[in-house]
Specification:
Blueprint (H helix, E strand, L loop, with lengths): L2 H16 L12 H8 L3 H13 L3 E4 L3 E4 L3 H13 L3 H22 L2 H16 L3 H18 L3 H14 L2 H10 L2 H19 L3 H20 L2
Antiparallel strand pairs: 1-2
Length: about 220
């Protein structure tokens, strides 16, 4: 197979895919048509299409032809867009589902340095009387618990949720509900989580975390 011709053909077909000439689910031209269009042997086209299929760009279906597949990066973009458009309630409900498990894992796995980092974040959050500083250290408290769970994926997911929680709808909700009474209650709830972590009590840590996030949901949404 002429290497230069195959390489040029593969690059050009990928560019045409990326430009949207053929959308996911559509059929590409058959081997005969592509060979005629590019002036190469059908065997060259076949090998290039086989390589593209191995890369997950297309699927060769017997009796139908070459089908364009949705690109993984497009799928990721769609998922991320839906994430960023999620409502504050949806995000909080997701946290209620995930964070108790992280707290339970942190109670089992936290090193002494990780526990000290959580203690520091809790103390600074308790000291903060303005919203922005309080939100920063509140986020650090929760993030450090995720880190102590020793699950990198959960930490990355929390970072994504933290980006969303700083968007306008969520911050406006927090401003409306940020009172001295709520700040102090938040501190007491954090202290309960921390006490469970210090005692290596996973079940108590999970329960305290869930109670804390459920309290937030009642405060924000009345449910």
């Amino acid at each position: 197979m002429p290497v230069k011709k195959a390489s040029a053909l593969g690059s050009d077909l990928q560019q045409r895919l990326e430009s949207g000439e053929w959308q996911p689910g559509e059929l590409m031209p058959n081997e005969r048509a592509l060979a005629a269009e590019y002036g190469v042997a059908r065997n060259t086209v076949r090998k290039v299409l086989t390589q593209m299929a191995e890369e997950g760009l297309i699927e060769r279906q017997v009796g139908r032809g070459t089908v364009v597949l949705d690109r993984p990066d497009h799928q990721f973009t769609d998922i991320l867009d839906r994430f960023l458009d999620a409502s504050p309630l949806d995000i909080l409900n997701l946290r209620i589902f995930i964070e108790p498990h992280s707290a339970e894992a942190a109670a089992r796995n936290a090193s002494s340095s990780e526990l000290e980092a959580i203690i520091e974040a809790n103390a600074k959050c308790a000291e903060a009387i303005d919203l922005d500083r309080h939100e920063y250290w509140d986020s650090q408290f929760h993030k450090r618990i995720h880190q102590a769970a020793n699950n990198a994926f959960l930490t990355d997911l929390f970072d994504l949720l933290s980006i969303i929680r700083c968007q306008a709808p969520m911050m406006e909700l927090r401003r409306r509900t940020f009172t001295e009474e709520r700040r102090l209650a938040n501190g007491r709830e954090h202290d309960e989580i921390l006490a469970a972590l210090k005692n290596w009590d996973g079940k108590a840590a999970a329960r305290a975390m869930r109670d804390h996030l459920m309290s937030r949901r009642r405060n924000y949404f009345g449910q």
